[in-house]
From TrEMBL:
Domain Histidine kinase: 161-357
One Gene Ontology molecular-function label: phosphorelay sensor kinase activity
SUPFAM superfamilies named in the record: ATPase domain of HSP90 chaperone/DNA topoisomerase II/histidine kinase, HAMP domain-like, Homodimeric domain of signal transducing histidine kinase
Residue stretches making up the HAMP domain: 97-153
Keyword set includes NADP: no
Locations listed in the record: Cell membrane
Source superkingdom: Bacteria
Listed name of the protein: histidine kinase
Amino acid sequence: MTLRLRLTVLYGGLFLLAGVALLGVTYLLFTRQVGQRVAVLTGTPPPGAPPLPSLDALDEQARQLRAAATTSLLTQGAIALGAVAVLAAGLGWLVAGRALAPLRQVTDTARRIAAAADPGGHARIALRGPEDEVKNLADAFDVMVERLDRSFDAQRRFVANASHELRTPLTVNRSLVEVAMRRGSDVRELGTKLLRINARNEKLISGLLLLAKSESALTARSPVDLAALVAQVTPPEAEQSLAEAVTAGDALLLERLAGNLVENAIRHNVPGGWVRVTTRTAAGRVELEVANSGPVIPPAEVPALFDPFHRRARVAAEGTGLGLSIVRSVAHAHGGAVTAEARAEGGLVVVVSLPAA
């Protein structure tokens, strides 16, 4: 039985019960009023008038009248109730169909997305109408599809970038081996270059695994002091202003977050530049700020710094391009956010904000 049919039966059944109750109350009131006895005045009829009926005859006539009226009331009431019940069921069928039309739209959209070659797709319900339960359901479905769409797009970009990044060092390795075989180069020099490339590959794979882990939901949380973590990963030459900043989360992921920020600030710097690291607590949140005096970065380029495998040209060969992507993923996994602002004098200020424990 479909939901529309169940709603129609429910509407019709409720109306029928209400009609039977109304007919019963009408019957009780009718019999109470008709069943009352009336006073009869008797006397002597005038000369030449027909004789008056007896009291027994009057009672019999009244009884027959009540019986006929009651039968007529019940019969005609039942017929009218049945006809109106059928009409109510028909109207209920139409109303239920109209009320369930948005749900059919949700179902059809879900089936189109499931049958599409691209699971993310761009189909949306975009239901218009009053803010009711069905509208809220459709809006929630649209938000879910939007997140799925972004997730699939990010997955495609990630796979494409990872494939490119992993293919490049393999090609370099093959080229070095071929050149060494042709020219008879020193095996030690060749081994040194291959070890350097392999070390970068290991770092890249570790970064990919950490990025995948940071994008998963946290299963366990424990109090973590960001100041203590930052002190462990920050070199002595960097300026440090570390106040207690306790949050709840995964200590290893948060340590990697702080390490990536400090490493990024040191790598993307100018000769003789500075790095400043600060932790603080404000308004129920803890913050980690890392600033440096690096090269000038156009403000329009700042959002792209958090994309996987994004590296600036000057240091393209020094890192894996996953540092800030891991920072953003770890922060989001802990319910936090990351903001970055380019300094006009050069360098970057990155602030990580997390809920305080």
